[in-house]
Amino acid sequence: MQIADFKSPVKVYDANSAIIFGESVGCLKLKEQSPLITAMTDIQRGARIRLIFSKLLWAMPDSYFKWWFDAIKVIHQYIDGHIERTYREMAERKKAEEAGLEVGPERTDLLWSMAQNLPDDAVALRSNIALIFAPNSDPITAYITNSLWQVARRPDVWEKVRAEVLANGDAPLTFTALRNMKYLVAVLNESQRLMITSLAHSRTAGVDTTLPTGGGPDGKLPIFIRKGDIIHAHRNALFKDKDVWGEDAEEFRPERWEQRKPFWSFIPFGGGPRRCPAEMLVLAQASYVVARLAQQYSRIESRDPEPYVPVVRITPANKNGVKIALFK
Predict the structure, then answer these.
(1) In CATH, 2-196+239-327 is 1.10.630.10
(2) What pLDDT, in 10s, does the model give residues 95-153?
(3) Which of 85, 111, 273, 304 could form a disulfide with 323 if both were Cys (CB 3.0 to 4.6 A apart)?
């Protein structure tokens, strides 16, 4: 038996930095990288505070948020180092190609790809990379830990997940293989539905339009939306609406996904052309972690009697962590 707390996002930062920058940040091995994690946490906390008090920011001097701006500088310096390295490698590669020298395969990380489109604008490149890097690890950590928090309290669900994963045999856990594990996907979806990793979804209407419900005395008639109107969709309300999910909407029941193919009733990553660009990355990492645990451990049990207590930075996470026991 092993007992662990899966609250820490460190492992996710290592994985995501390798995907984004081509190099792992090394949080698991290098203690000197801990200021980077602290800065990331401060950025997320500050962003949430500024969002909550957005209409009062005019009365709050920048000095109040000095800790937040200092954290941003730390992350900018980290990203700038990778951008300088990338531009340098691009120039060296181009020079070698022009000289007729043999060059190796190109890097496949996100920064390398984006740098091809922004070869002369390091600030714009940093902004685009930061948009993905800064909020990326917190939701993935919450997605994984929330799922483990749920299944640790449901041994029957874990048995089904494990049986489905083991049926894959020795075949690699590719993205396609993981997405074909329907019950595993159902467990992740159900965890995401009950323990939302992104609370709200806001959009501004570009043209006059209508929504199918929300009007009339009972809210079930179409409603007119004017151009410029801002629509806030609160996922916690939408994902637990008994009119959509049934009377057991508050219960953890992965089986509800066996016949359900929701569209706009389940939008954890948003929808349309501006849906979350990291959706597939989040799904792949969460599925892989749970599947690997299912391969290794016959059962898991909760070691935390406390209820779920959300604490919000970029996304809600359990204040008490995710303390579980794993049995071979």
Answers:
(1) yes
(2) 998 888 888 888 888 899 999 999 889 999 999 898 888 766 667 778 888 888 889 88
(3) 304
